[in-house]
Design a protein that fits this description.
Number of helices: 9
Strand content: under 5%
Distance between the termini: 41 Å
Structural class: mainly alpha
Number of strands: 0
Oligomer: single chain
Radius of gyration: 19 Å
């Protein structure tokens, strides 16, 4: 008897919700841009610029490598696999976002132009869609959340803050960061499944627990 492969209903539901979120984000692009422009102040600008500056992939990679080194030193094979998976997710999401944004050629909010979508462009001025910062950070921390929700849920505030900072400094539209977040979640899910991490029962033992 041949096995018939089917999409699980949950996947189809998540696909529908993701598409709806993306469509709504495009609809509210200008509304969010207007709201942020009306709520600018010097202190917040400095803070958000620093969040954007230190929320890129190199800082995430350094953090991941440091944690990987500690896990290896503690001889905890489980957490070595988890931190490796987080780094792989970071790299894949960042690469995918980079390829898409070059192909899309969407002008950033700070660029004065009548043509929003310009096709393949290498210039950073036309690399708005999607946000590389958001995609990488989301994939990195959502991978941890897939492994252990209890440990990872608090860290999800990091990609949320980074996403908002990218809009605040006029580097991205709402749809850029929403698309990037969805991309990061998809990559994190695929990496977690590939690495067979799942929802960790052993994660309750803690980072320093036995392998």
């Amino acid at each position: 008897m041949k096995y018939k492969w089917e999409f699980p209903r949950q996947f189809l539901l998540l696909l529908f919700l993701g598409g709806l979120m993306l469509a709504l984000s495009f609809y509210f692009d200008e509304t969010m841009r207007w709201w942020i422009a009306r709520h600018q102040n010097a202190s917040a600008k400095i803070f958000m610029r620093n969040v954007s500056r230190f929320g890129d992939w190199p800082e995430h990679a350094v953090l991941g490598l440091a944690l990987l080194a500690i896990a290896y030193w503690r001889r905890n094979k489980k957490w070595v696999r988890i931190f490796l998976a987080m780094l792989v997710a970071l790299a894949l999401a960042g690469t995918a976002a980079r390829v898409i944004k070059i192909g899309a050629g969407r002008a950033r909010p700070s660029v004065q132009t009548e043509t929003a979508w310009n096709g393949p462009k290498l210039s950073a001025r036309y690399n708005a869609f999607p946000s590389g910062h958001t995609a990488g950070s989301t994939a990195f921390f959502v991978t941890l959340a897939f492994v252990s929700w209890r440990i990872g849920v608090g860290f999800l505030l990091v990609p949320l803050l980074i996403a908002f900072s990218r809009m605040y400094v006029a580097a991205h539209y709402l749809s850029d960061v929403v698309c990037a977040a969805l991309l990061g979640i998809l990559v994190a899910y695929c990496v977690a499944r590939w690495a067979r991490l799942g929802s960790a029962r052993g994660s309750r033992a803690g980072f320093g627990g036995p392998p």
